[in-house]
Fold:
Amino acid sequence: MRRIATIAAALVLVATLPACAVWDRFAGPSGTPMVALPGQVEPVHSAVIVHDQAVFRVTSNGCTTKADILPVVRPSNDGPIITLRRIKEDRCREIQPDGESISWSFDELGIPSGSRLSVDNPYQMPPA
Structure:
């Protein structure tokens, strides 16, 4: 009987361990759930971090501006992580083959000068 209880406890433990990993992915640093963010994650065609500037090339149909993209910065042990979110859809019809270049200074992002910055957006090849 004791052996069955031990096996049952091990099975419960194995079944619940993945939940810890899932909770960590959706929880903030304090363990509280993160709030929903506006817009959608924006694929980037390129990202360059140099001289305390973060420069991104994003898809544009001709009307994308800096105000249409929201940079979300969150802390991590390896330095800040930035995620670009599109908050306004570009409904123009003049597709820009090279996309639109948008940049933010570290000051604008609230990041200390010289910080190592990671980008959390998916990479997308520019349209051919």
